[in-house]
Structure formats: C-alpha cells, structure tokens
Specification:
Elements: H1 7-11, E1 15-22, H2 25-34, E2 41-48, E3 66-74, H3 78-81, H4 84-99, E4 120-123, E5 127-130, E6 133-144, E7 150-158, H5 183-201, H6 207-216, E8 224-229, E9 232-241, E10 247-251, E11 256-259, E12 263-266, H7 267-272
Helix pairs in contact: 4-5, 4-6
Length: 275
Amino acid sequence: MSFVLAPTAQSEGYRLDAHDSVGSTNALALDHARAGDAGRLWVVARRQEAGRGRRGRAWATPSGNLAATLLLVTDGNLQTAATLGFVAGLALSDALEAVAPGLPVSVAPDGGSGPGSVRFELKWPNDVLARGAKMAGILLESALLPGGRAAIAIGIGINVVAYPEDVPYPATSLRALGSSCDAETLFLALSDAWSVNMRLWDDGRGLARVRGRWLERAAGLGGEVAVRIEGSVVRGVFETIDADCRFVIRGRDGALVTVAAGDVHFGAVASAGVA
C-alpha cells in the first residue's frame, strides 16, 4: 500500500510528498518552503535516518514506523502558530482511535491512567501516550521566509511497528499493543483528522475549543508532577493548561506556577525525584 491523502485533505488543498526513506521530514519540509513551496504539504516517510525531537534529541524512525511533517506557510503570529502542536496532538490521538479502536487501557507506569480513560493520552507539550508509555512525539520548527512570511514544520513521529528500548522512559508501539495497523493506514487517518482539528483551531480563533478537547485527554491531570526547567525542578499538582496552552502547576504552597517549556514527569517518578 502507498501513502495517500484522505479525501477531506485533498479537497482542502493539501498535497503529498511521500518517501520510503529520508534524513528528516522536518528538514525536507523546510527545504521545500525555502524553495518557494506555498505550504499545505505533507512530507511522509516509512523510515527516517536523522530524525530529531525536542531540544535536539534524536528520534529514531526504523522502517515501518511513520515520520510525517506538515508544512504550513503563514503570514501570521508565530506565538499563535506554536499552538499548532496541540492541534497535532488531537489529530494524532483521533487518528489512533480510528485505526486501533479495540486497544485496552491499563494503569500507567508513569502517571495515573485508569479504567475509563481515553486509550491515547496527551502529555504536555508534545507526546502521545498509550498505557502510560510514549508512542509518538511532535516537534514544531520554523524558518523565516522572504516577505515577512514564516514556514512552520509540524513533525510527527509514531512508533507503529517498533519502539526504542534504550530510552529512560517507557515506550511502546501499535504492534506491541496488538494492532496490525501499518504506517500508510495511520497516515490516511491522520491526514483526515488533521483537517477536522485544523478547522476547529480556525487560525487560532478556536484555540479555547482545542484547549478544552486537549484537557479531556491530558495525561496526569490532577496528579503529582515534577517539571525540569533549565536545571531546576518544580513540583506540585498538574492543575491545567492556561489560555495560551502553558503548563500550570499548583505548588505545595498553593501558589500557581506557569511553565512555558520543560520536561514533565508524573506519578511515582515525580514523587521519587527526577534524574
């Protein structure tokens, strides 16, 4: 099976650049933008040789997993565009629910999922979890273009058939959870779900609705949390995300702390300490 766009995505002007293997789908998407591409371009690959995550960390995409980047070109506010990561999280969780509807939920090793929880949770700011283990990551990168425009590369890496075992956090894949879904089927669902959630976002005007949906799927909400911020650790309870989608902690003294960027740890890990 080949990669194809959902009919909804095609009707809204999205295009596809599909590969068996690339260095980085984000890098390739930004190269397209610098060469004059107008955006609404999905760059996808079954294998990624030089993928990266937040803070320059490596993100491995062995053959059979999915690396997908959506290129958007905007004249708008980069601060507003940064919230597209939350749109991506919703779209991906919707797509995963569509392709793997029968997967069970169990108690999470790193944070408090339980019976009745959604199958795929969203961990602030950019991860998708299944049974408390990382299944996918999202990375936004940008580049300034002539004429005051900006290119936004929304990178999404999903463990479809394999997951890394040499990482300091639980990880999993669709195959490990019992799903036979392949990368092509997942991308078809993702391109459809993106269109739905992008309309909800509505150039940032619908951010409050995106935030509400995101909180319904938030991992660790109301539980103990520790956030590492530039070498220090803030501890407390995960209270909410604010109107700008920043992480809000209620500290042990009752004061609210707002975090724009940091590494989040839940449950027993938060209580025991963060390495």
